[in-house]
Every structure is written in C-alpha cells, then in structure tokens.
Amino acid sequence: MTDLNIDDILAEYDTSNITIATVCSHSSLQLFHGAKQEGFKTLGIAVGEERRRFYDAFPKAKPDEFLMVDNYQDILDLTSELQEKNAVIIPHGSFVEYLGADKFLSLNLPTFGNRNVLRWESDRNIERKWLESAGLTMPREVKNPKNIESPVIVKYHGAKGGRGFFIAKTYEEFQKRIQPKKPYTIQEFVMGTRYYLHYFYSPIQNNAYKLNKGSLQMLSIDRRDETTIDEVQRLGSIAELEEIGIHPTFVVTGNIPIVLRESLLPKVFKMGEQVVERSLDLFGGIIGSFCLETVVTENLEFKVFEISARIVAGTNPYVNGSPYSDLIEPGLSTGKRIAQEIKYAAKTDQLNEILS
Amino acid sequence: MTDLNIDDILAEYDTSNITIATVCSHSSLQLFHGAKQEGFKTLGIAVGEERRRFYDAFPKAKPDEFLMVDNYQDILDLTSELQEKNAVIIPHGSFVEYLGADKFLSLNLPTFGNRNVLRWESDRNIERKWLESAGLTMPREVKNPKNIESPVIVKYHGAKGGRGFFIAKTYEEFQKRIQPKKPYTIQEFVMGTRYYLHYFYSPIQNNAYKLNKGSLQMLSIDRRDETTIDEVQRLGSIAELEEIGIHPTFVVTGNIPIVLRESLLPKVFKMGEQVVERSLDLFGGIIGSFCLETVVTENLEFKVFEISARIVAGTNPYVNGSPYSDLIEPGLSTGKRIAQEIKYAAKTDQLNEILS
Amino acid sequence: MTDLNIDDILAEYDTSNITIATVCSHSSLQLFHGAKQEGFKTLGIAVGEERRRFYDAFPKAKPDEFLMVDNYQDILDLTSELQEKNAVIIPHGSFVEYLGADKFLSLNLPTFGNRNVLRWESDRNIERKWLESAGLTMPREVKNPKNIESPVIVKYHGAKGGRGFFIAKTYEEFQKRIQPKKPYTIQEFVMGTRYYLHYFYSPIQNNAYKLNKGSLQMLSIDRRDETTIDEVQRLGSIAELEEIGIHPTFVVTGNIPIVLRESLLPKVFKMGEQVVERSLDLFGGIIGSFCLETVVTENLEFKVFEISARIVAGTNPYVNGSPYSDLIEPGLSTGKRIAQEIKYAAKTDQLNEILS
What we know:
Three copies of one chain form a homotrimer.
Chain A: H1 6-12, E1 19-23, H2 28-37, E2 41-46, H3 49-53, E3 65-68, H4 79-84, E4 87-89, H5 93-99, H6 101-105, H7 117-121, H8 124-133, E5 152-156, E6 166-168, H9 171-177, E7 184-188, E8 193-202, E9 209-210, E10 215-228, H10 238-243, E11 250-257, E12 259-260, H11 265-283, E13 288-296, E14 302-308, H12 334-347, H13 351-354
Parallel strand pairs in A: 1-2, 1-4, 2-3
Antiparallel strand pairs in A: 5-6, 5-7, 8-10, 8-13, 9-10, 10-11, 13-14
Helix pairs in contact in A: 2-12
C-alpha cells in the first residue's frame, strides 16, 4: 500500500516464524505480552540501558531479544538484519514520533496497518475532511477570534503535548492569552465527558460487526489523564490560576479505565463503521487498531475531536482483558488481538492485506 | 407478590428450560453473558436493527435470539409467546423506563425481583420514608428556599436525566436560577466523594452475610460519570460558567471502577441489612440486586441520596469480576449472580420467592 | 533487625505451619485472600462483631479464625498464644495506627518487613533526608510564609487524615486561613496528576529488576480518592467555597485504578531502586511492599511527596491482578506476593531476612 516493496519482502519471509518487533515504549508491554501469548518471537528496539532493564520485572512481557540502538533512526540501517528475523513492526504513537513521520513512511519493513493513514491524520484539515465526510461530528472551528461566543480551545501550530493549548471563554480572554506572531487554530470547546474508544478493524475476518468488507470490534474504552488540567481544580478555577500566572497544560500522563452507557454502543459502532468505510474509499482503509477521541455532550451526542490510527496507550489498562473484550474472549488485550490478526493472516496467506 | 398470576404462569413453566430475557440496553451485555455462563437460553428484546447488530461484536454476550419489536410496549402483546419460551425477565433501569412503570407492573411475565419495590422508589417522599425508617441518613430537605444556609441541589419535579438540576450556595443564587411556576424540591448538597454500592440480597441462600431471612452480598462499587458536571472544571468554576450562561448538567454517560476504604465496609453491610430488613416489613422485600447511591463525608459518614432497586449500569465495569466479587467467586458479575440465583431457585423449586 | 528476640521466636516456629495474621481493616481482604491462595492458615484480629461479620460475604478472603479483642493494644498480651500458632504479622497502615507506633515496635511477634523503617517515615524531616539523599525530588519546603510565591499546602503538625490541611496561593490567603499558635509546615503545592506507585522489594529473590542485593517489582498503581477535595469542583472553586466558610478536606475514602504513561516506567524503577539502596545503607532496608506517592508535572517529572513503607490500601483494586502484575503472574495481588515471599523464605530458611 506504500511505495515500498513490502510485498517482495514478505515473499521472502518465513511466515511460520515471524518476529513481532516494536520500540520499547508506549504500549510495548502489552504488545510483547500479546505476541508471546500467541506464540510469536518478540524483539524490542531500545535506546539506553534503562529502557531495557525494567522489562526484567515483567517476565510475561519481556521481549525475547533486544535491539539496542544509539538513536531510533538507526532502525533504518538495520532493516536487513530485521528482515532476516522475519520481523513485523507494530507501530505505536511513540514509534512514529521517535522515528519521524517521513522515516516511518520509508521504513523498509512490513508494518502492521496501513501506513497511508499517516497522511490523513497528521494534518488537522485533512483529518477533518475524512471524519466529517464520514458523517462524524467534530467540534466547530472558529476562523475569527472576534466570533468567539462560547468557550474555545486555542492550539498553536506544532505545539507539543498540549503545552501550548489554552481555553478561552470570551474574546477578551483570548486577547489576554494569545501570543503575538504564532499561528494558531481555534476550536469550539465541547463540554462533556471524554471517552476514548478503542476499535479494531479486520479486513480479513467476518466474525464481528460486519462491514462491506471485513468486520469491526470495540475492545475497550479509557479516559486520558492529563497533567495539569485534570487535577487543577484542587488549587482553583482556571481563571483564578491564570490571574496568578499559572496556565494549565494538557500533557498525557496515564489512563483510567471506564465503561460507557450501554445505550450509546450502537452509535459507537456506527461511528466506527463510517470511519472505516470512508477510509477504504479514501486510502485503502484504516487497518487494525484505531481510536476515536470523543466528548459526550449533555444531549448524549458524540463530538469527535481526534482520531488515532493505531494502538493507543489508552488500551494499557486492559493488558488482561476489558469489560468489552472479555465478551469476545476472556483476557483479550489489543496487543493480543493484533497478534491474532497477524497469525490468522499468516496462516491464510493474507499478510499483504494487513501489513504495509 | 403482585396482582398478577405469576405463580400460575410459573406452574406451567418447564423450569429446566428457562430463557433469560431483557431489553437490549443498560446492562444487557452483562446479563446475557452471565446467563449464558450459567447455561441459560437468552433472548434480547430490541427496537431497531442498530440495537441488534452490535451484539455481533460480542459473541459471549450475544443473545441466542432476538425479539424485534416496533416499540417496547409491544412486549405486552407478546407475553404468550414469551411464556412458551419459559421466559424470565430481568428488568433493568431502561427496561422499566422504556416500558413505563404502569405497564411494567402489569406485565404478565415472571420478572426477577419484587415489582412492588417500584412503588417505594419512584416517589421521593415514600423512598425517604423507607430509607430513613431503615436508619439510613439522607441529605436534608430544605422546605423554604429562604432557609438555604449551605449548598443545596434544586431538582424540578419530573426533570429527566438531571438536566433540570442546579446547585445553589445561597438564597441569592437560588433566586437567580429558579424558573417561575415550576414545582421543585430543595435538598442539602452533601459534599464528599460518591460511591455507588452494588448489593445482592438472596432470600433463599444463607452462604453470605446472614440476615433474619436469607443473606446479603456486596458485589462491586462504581462512581457514575456525569456530563457535563464531571469535566466542567476544565473550563471554570460553576459560578464562572453560570455567569456566561452555561449550566452544568448531571446526565450519566458512564461508570468508573473504584474501591472503598476497607474500614467502611462494616457500615456498608449494616446499611444494606437495614434496607433489606425494612423492605421485608414494608412490602415483601427488595429481592436480588440493588444499589445505594452514597456520598462519604469528611467525617467518613455515608449520606444516601438514592436507592436503585435492581441491577444498575454501575456494575458494567465488572463483567468479569470485581475486587469484591472475586473474593466470592473469580469472575463473578452481577449478571452472573442473578443467573445463579434463578438457577438455584429453579433447582430447589423456589422461583416464586425471587420472581414476581 | 529490632531489639526484640524475633530470631529466637522464629527458631521455635514450625515454619511449615505458619499462620498469617493481621488486623481486620485496610487491606486485610486482600492479605487473607493472598495468604489463602498460597496455602497459609489465616487469622484476623478484630474489635467488635461488625468487623468480623462482613467477612462472611467474602468466603475467599475470610480468615480461618478470628481473634476477637476489646481493643487492639490487647494484642500485646496475646503474643504467646499467637506464637503458638506460628503467627507472622503482616502490618498495614491501620495495624500500625490502631496499635500505636511504640507498641508496634515492641510487639514480640515476627512481622513482615523491617520495623526500623518506622523511625524513618514517621518524622517528615527524617523522611525527607532519606528520600532526598536517595536522589528523589520532593516538593520544596517554605520556611517563612512571607516567601510564598506560588501555591503551597499548609499542614498542621499531627493533623489527622488531612483534615487540617489547606492550600494557599499567596501570603494573604495564608494569613486568612492560618490558625494562631498551631505549629505547621509549609510545602510547595506541586501541580500535576497524582500516581501512587506500589513496589515490592525482595532481598532474597533475583528474578525481577535486579539491585545490588535482591530485586524490585512494581505491582500496580492507583490514585487516591479524597473527600471532599476530589469532588469539590461540583460546587465551586476552592476560593469561592472558602469565602462561604467551606474548607475542603483531604480524607482518603477509596482508590481508583490507573496506569502510567509507559515511557515513565524507567524513571519509576530508578526511583524505587534509589529508595531501596539508600534504605539498605541507612537502616537495613525497606523490605517487601512500599509505595511512593508522586505527582507528575507538566514536564513529566516526578515529585515524591511521601513514602509508605508497607502495603497501601491503593493495592485493593487489584485483588485479582493489575495491568502490571498480570505481566508477572496472572492474578497476582500484593497480598499474594507477600504470601509468596514468606513461603519462599520459609522454604529456603531465610525468614529472618524478611521478618523483624
């Protein structure tokens, strides 16, 4: 599905002897654990002894071998070595971030999922086109700050980890906070409770919620825990804090397990279906794990503020099953589900359908 | 226990071949899962294809068959068909709401629990009589708004899903917010952390916390997640928001798992005991699942602001066991516990003790 | 490791027939459950029938026998009886609190862990010396209230359960709230999300994260739930509430499961290692369970505001395993891990390495 010769590489692979590989971060404990549960060899790519050492404390998730590198870009020089191990890469958010989008796209190794999705999620405008044309509702954009009539969230372009974000309830608040000469986007701040929905789309299996091609699962839900915004109320209201020069940040530090009101599940599956069907039209499909990041309003409507097109760290509370995945198979994690998909594709000679 | 001839219906049942039935919403995944675990046939009642379709994604919870209806009141016309299947209804909150209290009370099918409890929980004054006469402490009522001396919550009569509720700290705030000519109730707003305690009372088994008749379990605890109130602090304090015309709502969107300080468990069981013993005196007993909705104050006292007299959606995080139910039997959910009770009653010919 | 003749007592024990004993509170359900899983006899020490009775509802955690006392100090008079049962005490926070530190230190029974740690954690200044000399970062102390330049938390000496604590953002706020003639400490209020890290250090096993002597595990993480501070935002900002005479409190009422951003785990293990290595130098080591209570700042740095040197109630959500411990052994709780350590030490004749 990319410009690379992944099919040629796969043709050389001993698909009965695949090694699951990823970078030692993000959701790697879960990914290695799931891969081991399904009988795969595992390989962890790490920079620095500290990244390697703590796996000793988690024997069921410790990869069979480590590939120690000086920096993550070195992976690009080690593709032959990895190909010899029949390595399949499971990319996660940190994998893509550490390697850089361009280098990730040119990585000459079979990776789980469709790498083309990166072009559709890394630009906010293109992402919006995808999701809105799929029928999902996103928070409105406010083009002119003078039109701020209800709370908005202002995001500087390229701001990392939400540290540049701020919330404004009025134009006056916006003026007080905005920094000169920095490009920004203004988005409606949707009030409501946040739910991060973890889906799994298989183009090759039909044993779940059926789509035109393949089928859809919803494996778990979490709420992200963000510093400092999520405990800011211990100190005061945001307005009070900003007056004394303290600005809340939106840096993710962890994840809390949660379940959703059951009557909303039909909508959850409908949204997942729409996103997948549209992705098949647009770029060959969002394969495997993805996450819709949503707010549920007081009218019980979902507003989708972002999509993550691969495994999210929000699945980490569910290393040994979730209240949803346990209804598929007891103890099923997203990591295990991914390993099952690769195993099934290898057995039925369809790896090129799920790797790119 | 009702005016219906449930005993006569049961007399005709093949109790070795019961079908567990409920409406496809609320906690139905858990109920079907638990029923299947205990070997029952299962039947889901649903309006609309979307309600049916997502069960395909959860094979261990998908009912064996669906009864598709145009609206939920149609169930009343299908009782013969359901009786032929030896159907036992597990009512949950949405079941009662969709059908309507009157129609639920007149439904000519064996339902789990004591339907008479509905008369005691649907009217706030009668509910208060039950709980206070049982020895539980509830938030004070404030009869005259001029007497507001500490924070209160104001509830319009018949307001749905907490959308009409508001909080006032003073009489002035009350005056600013109150709408003319709408009847309301004013209740002390109790400050503290909320715990929703999920009990199970069996009148026919004695293998747990023993009561005069039968025994009591506590299977799990959750905290409800309510939009928009539970993430309102991301934007500002309630007073700040109300000034710009934003009023928080209390609409339930999900549930978060939680455990309680262990030294409070004796009080938890005492409260459960008092509620059950009193219910036996008043109306034949609250049978099966119920939930006390509580606030724990800074003095570690429980204030009970509501009772739910059947399975609550707060048990949904625990489809595969909770930190409490795992100490009874690994993987025990409330749904499974209900199925066990029906199975035991059927085997020992005591179904009329737990169905009504 | 204490002045007591614990080694002599142990020499008389039938170590193939140990009874695990603790006070019926705090984390006792988990401790009894874990001990029973590992095949130990169990004994619960309780004051009052209500403390005994609710265990009937949790058969897998109900101790084999109870020792009913009039008050917890009576344990001191019952040591011979307990020694005859080959009792090993697992102390938890309530055990130490109910008995009193002095009496706990003089208790003539083998207790799990190193009792000497109590001298290092019960005094805030000594605790600070330990943790800071271990290389951990703690919130700054503010010696003079006039130097308050950013939010602080003010703690009266000997205040129980956090009820005397208050937060001040300025010197003016401090002056408004401070009570005359009460000694206090002022600590920087660190903004961020709280994570309570549950470690286990074994001086006698080497199958985890290796230290100079023994090895380290991280079994789970929780967030404490504190009344009224954690739901105060439902009513208003702290400043608004204090104006009308409502002061938030920090009384623990429960625990919420949570996972941490995986890229922070190397730091988590490093901190644990530093604390243990330093404790070995200072007082013979912190043996078994301990907890670092941390805040993660917007720069993803840990500030450690406290250490608990034994099992914490924050492990209670994980009676049947956590997203971390499941990667060691499915279903592993801290209670079970402690029982395993005692079992292994008994088998290898090293009980004196882990008991004191």
